[in-house]
Write a sequence for this structure.
């Protein structure tokens, strides 16, 4: 499992402010803390208006790379911002994201292909997110097929099944798990990513639901979750899931976290 | 999911003392608290020497039934104790347990059959617990077959795959899950039971591992876990797993637990 750290995201008000004010220290602290907490990738999202976004995203890329040496997940739907940012990254980036939407296919796929990037492919097209597993898989097959046609190998494709909210559809968890299992079996070299928190929207004590979902999704094939690596409760969930699933050799990560005091229960939810 | 409350067990020192001293109040409090916390069955285990056990188990059955009206899980390997206790139960009991061991088959199977009880069948025989999933299933098939031959229908059979300890075998979690999934698919009307804590033996902050295991096992087919229903951390795990798996209609159990203050994080592990 490799975590994509989600915190440098301009849709969060503190980050938005830091981008607007060029608060380098704030962003660099977020970057360092997430990498220290185990992030393998860092998502960077400027979240600004299209005309400002290329400059803002490049600024984020540069200041983040001053303090950490991890690959970046360039988070934008704006081809102009992405193509500028790609010029400044030190490691091959992950593009977040492409989908079956015509506009994204036309704007982003050529970039991914020519720059040799990896890419997150959402189970979404111009008609929205398919409601059932089979339709979602049909869409994923089409998008993965188009990526492969452009020379993007399976191991560079990160499929996001797009997790819906349980509070509005009781089947949301099962749909996500079944989609992940099918993707894992059909595209064994592809990665599976998703956010861990959408599932619990509208429910109380969301972290408990998020933990259960993360645990089950790791079983179903999720290998690159997008999450806050500093979230102590989520960390307990993923570390223990890896132990129970037999993926933490000699329980080394788990016992190391224990010795670092990371497994104590928080005082409050 | 229906919980078998595990706390009235003579191998626990406080219960052993209460049985020896005929401390009715102590046992009855354990019974009431577990049922209040959601136990569907109550396990009763006297844990005393064979010659004392019939009398002690009957005493437990009687005083428990004075305060709660739930079916009991009669926990003993002693046919004499079981046959006495069966005479005193108000509801059809669950016998804990039978296995492929010759002695248990001969001593306990006739009792289960003639009294029309339900029974827990362990994946164990005179050679021990099979190390891999296939051998475990072969044994389970044989035991379930013998039970069916004696007229015990599948819905009265509770298969316990016997969860091993991760610390001694990294595959223990996967073996348990795979066994459960196979049993669920091969014997769709049978129940699946197991203790939730053996998995974490020897590891720190065991409750975190137990929660992950319980979450994954509920997915794999576990429907009658043996556990401490008063354990707040485990409760969070099973309530949230049921939500994510789409089994908690309108999230009613989850939100009810929230309103009762049961989902707050404990101050310490």
């Amino acid at each position: 499992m490799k975590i994509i750290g989600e915190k440098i995201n301009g849709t969060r008000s503190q980050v938005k402010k830091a981008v607007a004010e060029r608060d380098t220290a704030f962003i660099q602290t977020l970057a360092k803390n997430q990498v220290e907490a185990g992030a393998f990738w860092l998502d960077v999202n400027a979240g600004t208006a299209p005309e400002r976004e290329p400059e803002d995203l490049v600024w984020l890329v540069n200041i983040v790379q001053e303090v950490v040496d991890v690959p970046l997940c360039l988070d934008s739907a704006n081809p102009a911002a992405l193509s500028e940012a790609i010029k400044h990254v030190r490691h091959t980036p992950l593009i977040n994201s492409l989908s079956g939407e015509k506009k994204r296919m036309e704007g982003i796929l050529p970039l991914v292909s020519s720059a040799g990037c990896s890419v997150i492919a959402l189970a979404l097209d111009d008609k929205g997110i398919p409601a059932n597993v089979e339709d979602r898989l049909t869409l994923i097959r089409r998008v993965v097929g188009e990526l492969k046609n452009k020379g993007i190998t399976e191991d560079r494709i990160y499929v996001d099944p797009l997790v819906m909210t349980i509070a509005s559809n009781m089947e949301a968890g099962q749909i996500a798990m079944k989609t992940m299992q099918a993707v894992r079996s059909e595209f064994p070299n592809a990665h599976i990513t998703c956010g861990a928190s959408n599932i619990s929207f509208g429910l109380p004590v969301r972290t408990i639901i998020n933990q259960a979902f993360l645990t089950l999704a790791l079983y179903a094939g999720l290998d690159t979750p997008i999450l806050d690596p500093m979230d102590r409760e989520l960390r307990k969930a993923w570390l223990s899931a890896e132990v129970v699933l037999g993926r933490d050799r000699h329980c080394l990560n788990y016992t190391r976290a224990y010795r670092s005091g990371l497994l104590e229960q928080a005082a409050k939810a």
